[in-house]
Amino acid sequence: MIEKRGIVQQRWKIAQDEIVGEDYIATVSPDTMIQQKSRPNPSNSPVAPLVLAWQSALERQDSTAYTNLWDKSARKKRTSSFRRALGLMSQAHIIDLQDATYSPVPTRRNRHIVDGIRVTLQNNGDIIETHNRTLTIEKKGFFRRQWKLINDQVGEISGAIVLEQTQQPSGVNTVSGDESGGSFDGNAPLDTQLKARQILGKWQAAWEGKDLNTYMSIYSDEALITRVTVRGGVETPVYLNKKQLRASMKRLNSMYSDIQVDISNLQINGDRAVADVTFLQKFTGTPASGTRPAYSDYGTKRLNMMIDPTDGHWRIYAETWSRYEDVPEYPKM
User: 252: alpha, beta or left, given left = phi > 0 and alpha = psi -120 to 50?
Assistant: First the structure.
């Protein structure tokens, strides 16, 4: 309340300052105000409607709607990006735009970059991978100019196996034919490759972590495993069922305090229900009594994976391993 006060010189003064409905007043700190001011508001971006249309097309797995969002000439120039994104649409998409940033390109008035989009791929409720997406959007057309995708870049991937750059013995031919250990090859459909990589990453982590229950859950009850023992330079195959494999892995875990399993040169062949997975495997075991590895071997591992008809999950049905010459090594303690 404001009143005019004073006898000789009257001035407007505050007579009463009353807070009404204080329970509903929101307190905003200076830091929050700065953060809100600096953070781009997607509703203010002219490309926000296209981003929402892109999200809808992916989550509905509508390849036609997704294709129509692209500029035709850009689709030809960036065929690999377009085809990769289109191939991923066989999986269910969950799009998170919460941390996405919308940035106009200073040197190109009609071009915007949308970065920080998190995409999670799922198959029958199982998470296959999570990756970042970056969209490049530009206004195209002569008479009726519209915002169009000119690139859809798939970024870093998590939740799948990370291939190691393992050092190979000289003169060894790689499984995939590539010199780089960080690549994978094969004729399997993309969704099968992604699923096989996920299963293989889980298998690798369980072995190195000596998590026997998780490790064994990846094998089918009907699995046939071929392990190789080497004595005097002679390889002898040993055939194990699932129960025997569990006993063998339990003994192995008790022998070594530290286990490392490096995977490289991954090749995945098959179809949507069967995967023939081949890779180079280096096993290293270090006992609790020492700091140097007591055992190391290097060879080709082959896993036959199939969808288990009892529950629809991918599992290992067969496993074989063959070594390279002059391997395994037995370092001196």
Answer: alpha
Q: Which residues 6+ apart lie within 8 Å of 220 measured at CB?
A: 242, 306, 308, 315, 316, 317
The reported pLDDT for the residue numbered 163 is: 53
Bond from prior residue into 46 cis (ω within 30 degrees of 0)? no
Look over the chain and give the mean of its residue pLDDT values, rounded to a whole number: 78
Contacts of 134 (CB under 8 A, 6+ apart): 113, 114, 115, 117, 151, 152, 153, 155
Give the helix, strand, coil percentages of the chain, each rounded to 5: 25, 40, 35
pLDDT tens track for 114-152: 988 999 988 777 777 788 899 999 999 888 889 999 999
* DSSP strands (E only) in 110-233: 111-123, 126-140, 146-158, 184-185, 219-231
Q: How far is CA 3 from CA 10, 11, 76, 196, in A?
A: 10, 8, 73, 78
Residue predicted with more confidence, 181 or 134: 134
Residue 4, beta-bridge partner list: 12
Domains along the chain?
42-158 (3.10.450.50), 184-323 (3.10.450.50)
User: Does residue 92 carry a pLDDT above 60?
Assistant: yes
Q: Which residues lie closer than 8 Å to 84 by C-beta, 6 or more apart?
A: 154
User: pTM of the predicted model, to two decimals?
Assistant: 0.50
Does 39 score more than 50 pLDDT? Answer: no
User: In this structure, is the dihedral angle defined by the CA atoms of residues 313, 318, 323 and 329, taken in order, positive or negative?
Assistant: positive
